[in-house]
């Protein structure tokens, strides 16, 4: 008979092969063909457990294990199955599969629970389509409206509304169909750490106390496109030179003028017309700033906006700065932290109470209910890349703790 | 009856509408469907003049006006019809159409010439497919071999050999079919200036004395792709931050550590995976350095290579620098400069003897024969962009001078 670990491994590996970039990591954007195939896999597994499955207008999968207690608020479990481009196979999927395994174990062992469980597979967590992270959980919790959805676009210019409609979703139900505070008793998400602390300290379990807040800005610089050979240096209005100056300054600001916990990244840049022998006319780039302390974000964002104005003025460029995503840093529930910690102590698992540098869907539910997170180690701290790895032994330990904590919370 | 200017305008406008980017400038890459349609237009015009048309293995069109003197070396006229992405309608096309009009006028007026004329439409001048400029003229003059062609690739990974074969060319004839020194008596190219000097000085004609040399480098920086939220600043190996530092330095080096004539540009950058919330793993960018004085190029190139090594070492990145294109600065023929200048004086046209910051196909023929170039003004100095403009009155003046100079050279 398969062990829990065998089943977890089988599920994660089966989903990993559903990728648009075989041999080059997991590329499984929400609303893509790969997403559809991964969903079909999950639906089959959920049907084996007789879960009641519902898919909302944004593509969030809500699968309920009700066992006759439908009327009580649920304990929510969940994470996501979408990825960045050329990402890893553990980010998100590990939490979804651990939650699925939890329900299998509860059913097999006929564990009695007072409250229903609900496994939610959040759509579009990574922001790969529209540059907006946690879109599914934002929509589910009413933080992002149907109207907003009509105003966002993919890099190819297709609206959020159309992308979701084309995927066959009942997009117009968004807004009517949001999560209600009274339906939720608690939420726990298991996730890979995506940083190197647990691996470095040889600790299999992280219990998250705060999740970093983030802001994503899109900065656009427009200058004058011209021939690279015939325009003297002093006559140029070159947005690429301006972008370089700002990107270099962002690194300095995050390193030296903020807090030790602050990070700032430019991971995406688009240059037009993007030809070696043409001075570019327009450069757009995205700035991601994060910190568990809002002051760190504030400092770097202020410095960035000032620098952008200064650079544009000095170089005769037109600049625009658009805040395209924002989430506040949040403290997780001390009640859930204690529930997980006491289980870890009972089971004698080594653990660390820590912050999360990454934002997660769970953070969207903190104003609805008590929220907790369990981390398992990312080997070498690598994530969002094909080399992302977590030992299945560690996932098994994380899943054990999840089971213990959920049994407590669902019987309160 | 149509005037010369009417015919020139009609031809240029008819070719301008053959673009992959309607309303957004001319995008007509060599070996594309747009290229094929523009060629068909030219073939029809050439057939009306009974030119002997031959297309070589690289796609260079060679159209001869022989009038019974096939055995003597030809005076070559020509330029190109390919463009950068979202470029202008005058770059290249103006020279091709002026040469075509020249042959029309010579035939109509039954001007007697001792030597044959040859109109060459050079393929792939802009380097839009492979990042290598003047590929057609390099191949025609034996500077780029069949073997080299098998080693270059489009950004989509298709070899030069395959791109040309797929276009229906007899690529294997390359090398056997190069230009021979004894076949050529002289070459003149008319081209738009692509800089702002003639327009600023209200002068309709430039007579080129030197063409800038250039080098194009591809710089690749590899680091460690990771999650933008969970990796502290001090643990990053971020190639985008490294690229920004090098791009900023390139500008400083070209402005302050070289010559007043030196220019350096980064017009193309590619970031992988190019996601806002992922520290990039690899950034590739292209550096274009030009000067009429080889010392200027040397200084900036040396500084760039040193800086790249320093940045890679300091940041724990892997760097590679590849020289993907190079042409020496060249002095044009004083005999042809004098022929054009004396015609300008006879016609009482205002002119300026000047340098070319841009490299042109003509530069590839300077070790074969006497080469000259006529410039006409670019309004506002704009080129390689949809706003590129030249007054048709100025093109007409340039074409007049071309006719006068060619009549002299073809009767020597």
Question: What report would you give on this structure?
Answer:
2 copies of one chain form a homodimer. With 412 residues, chain A is of the alpha/beta class. The first copy, chain A, has 2 domains: 4-212 and 329-410, Aminopeptidase (3-Layer(aba) Sandwich), CATH 3.40.630.10; 213-327, Alpha-Beta Plaits, CATH 3.30.70. Helix content of chain A is 34%, strand content 23%. Chain A is built from 11 helices and 15 strands. Chain A has helices spanning 4-16, 33-48, 93-108, 135-140, 146-151, 160-166, 197-200, 239-256, 294-315, 334-347, 392-410; strands at 52-55, 61-65, 74-80, 117-122, 184-192, 205-211, 213-222, 226-227, 263-272, 278-279, 282-291, 318-327, 330-331, 351-356, 371-376. In chain A, strands 1, 2, 3, 4, 5, 6, 13, 14 and 15 form a 9-stranded mixed β-sheet that branches. A 4-stranded antiparallel β-sheet of chain A has the order 9-11-7-12, covered by helices on one side. A two-stranded antiparallel sheet of chain A has the order 8-10. In chain A, a hairpin with a 5-residue loop joins β1 (52-55) and β2. In chain A, α3 (93-108) packs across α11 (392-410), α8 (239-256) runs antiparallel to α9 (294-315) and α10 crosses α11 (392-410). The longest helix of chain A is centred in the C-terminal third of the chain and has 22 residues, at 294-315. The mean pLDDT of chain A is 95. At the A-B interface, β8, α8, β9, β10 and β11 of A face β8, α8, β9, β10 and β11 of B.
């Amino acid at each position: 008979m398969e062990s829990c670990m065998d089943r977890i491994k089988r599920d994660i590996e089966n989903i990993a092969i559903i990728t648009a970039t075989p041999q080059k990591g997991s590329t499984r954007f929400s609303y893509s063909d790969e997403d559809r195939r991964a969903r079909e896999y999950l639906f089959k597994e959920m049907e084996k457990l007789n879960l009641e499955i519902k898919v909302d207008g944004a593509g969030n999968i809500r699968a309920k294990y009700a066992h006759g207690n439908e009327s009580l608020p649920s304990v929510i479990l969940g994470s996501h199955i979408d990825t960045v481009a050329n990402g890893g196979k553990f980010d998100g999927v590990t939490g979804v599969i651990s939650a699925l395994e939890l329900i299998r174990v509860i059913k097999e062992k006929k564990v009695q629970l007072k409250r229903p469980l609900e496994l939610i597979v959040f759509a579009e967590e990574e922001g790969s389509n529209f540059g907006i992270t946690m879109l599914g959980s934002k929509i589910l919790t009413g933080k992002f409206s149907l109207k907003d959805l009509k105003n966002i676009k993919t890099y190819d210019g297709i609206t959020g509304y159309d992308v979701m409609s084309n995927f066959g979703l009942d997009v117009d139900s968004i807004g009517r169909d949001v999560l209600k505070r009274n339906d939720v008793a608690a939420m726990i998400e298991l996730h890979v750490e995506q940083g190197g602390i647990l691996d470095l300290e040889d600790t299999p379990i992280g219990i998250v106390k705060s999740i970093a807040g983030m802001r994503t800005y899109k900065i656009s610089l427009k200058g004058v496109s011209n021939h690279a050979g015939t325009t003297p240096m002093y006559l140029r209005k070159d947005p690429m030179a301006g972008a370089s100056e700002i990107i270099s300054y962002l690194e300095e600001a995050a390193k030296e003028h903020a807090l030790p916990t602050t990070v700032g990244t430019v991971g995406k840049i688009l240059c037009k017309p993007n030809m070696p022998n043409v001075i570019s006319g327009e450069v757009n780039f995205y700035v991601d700033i994060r910190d568990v302390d809002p002051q760190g974000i504030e400092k770097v964002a202020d410095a960035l906006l000032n620098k952008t104005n200064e650079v544009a003025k000095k170089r005769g460029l037109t600049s625009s700065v658009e805040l395209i995503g924002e989430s506040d840093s949040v403290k997780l529930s001390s009640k859930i932290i204690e529930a997980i910690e006491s289980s870890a102590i009972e089971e004698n698992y080594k653990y660390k109470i820590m912050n999360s540098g990454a934002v997660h869907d769970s953070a969207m539910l903190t104003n609805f209910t008590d929220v907790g997170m369990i981390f398992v180690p990312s080997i070498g701290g690598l994530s969002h890349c094909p080399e992302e790895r977590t030992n299945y032994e560690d996932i098994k330990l994380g899943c054990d703790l999840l089971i213990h904590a959920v049994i407590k919370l669902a019987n309160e």
